[in-house]
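hey can u check if this looks right to u? its 424 residues, i copy pasted from the old doc so theres a chance i mangled smth
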Amino acid sequence: MTFRDTISLAYRTVRSNKLRTGITVAIIALGITALIGINTAIAAIKQKFVESFSSMGATGFTIRYQEPRRGFNNDEVKKEKKGAKKEKKSNQGKVITKQQAELFKQNYHFPAQVSINMTGSRDAIISYENKKTNPNVMVVGGDENYTGLNGFSVLFGRDLNTLDIQSARNVCLIGKDVATKFFGENLERPLDRIIRINNIPFRVIGSLEPKGSTFGRSLDNVIIISYPNVRRYFNSNPNASFSVQVRVADLKMMDAAIGEATGTFRTIRKLNVTEGDNFAIDKSDSIAEMLIRNLSFVTMAALLIGVITLVGAAIGLMNIMLVAVTERTKEIGLVKAIGGKGRNVRQMFLYESIIISLLGAAFGIVLGILLGNIVGVLLSTSFVVPWDWVITGVVICTIVGLLAGLYPAMKASRLNPIEALRYE
């Protein structure tokens, strides 16, 4: 028997036992669907993380307020506890003020873009004439560099400028969702109109280019105003802190930029050499990297679920193949009687087992990709195919088919042809 004859016979046998084959294929497909589906969803989530947190690019970082760690004592605090000289109070737990952020922007001489910002409100109500939005519009305060450092682009009109910041005049940039609510799809119509943010009038100077949504939250349901106005109108909390964003031109300059930023800001915050930093510096892609690392636990869980299911499928496939050996004893004897060798019989059962396993892999991969991309649709990402896991699934199923069919194939190949022909 040639290789082609053996494959053909194995395939005809698979087709002739539709119910048995279908049940086994379904079990294998279930394990592969879990494996591929979860990893497809994870790939979609990773893609969204990268899109969401890379708006500043790999060359950006943020200086933000860091709450003091509970139970942490720096040298200054230890001195105070020991009754040493108390020249000044500890600087731990102090928020970043507007004056400190502006001083940093003025004194940071590294070749980089710097932006000061502050979150104003996450539930603002916008009104125009007799219409108003739901209380879910986000108001953020920035400066002339804020849009460029946060992935926004002005589609019509102009951006904030230094005069807007210095004079704190009531002007704003509006996102697509806010613009279409009041002015329709033409994003140029809102220019120079007066809208009210929590009943405070602001003149629209620009419409932002649509950005879409991330994790169920629209990035276009936003209004950008100057940070002095956020402080004055929308965030009067004395414990509210400003943030400073920095972006350099080249990734090679990042370490030097962070080092100079740390030194400059420590001076502004009046920290002495015995005190630790009371602010944090986050690279723009570090949050995404941390979250993606956490997703590895979900990947391991998916792999564990898939392996457990496939082990069960392998046991089921082996039992089915052993039943097939018993049912086809006469056929095996006939194959050997007309000149077939034990190797041909062994290959026939191995190929049959592998074909069933690969059919399960095919159905499981297609179904897993479709189910996993439902997450992609919800997150508004492009269609994702985790090719590494697809290949892994095919390899795993091939091994499962090989191992599950090995013992039945060996048993069939050792049958005595005379006894097999006489088998009732």
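Confidence is low (pLDDT under 50) at residues 76-88.
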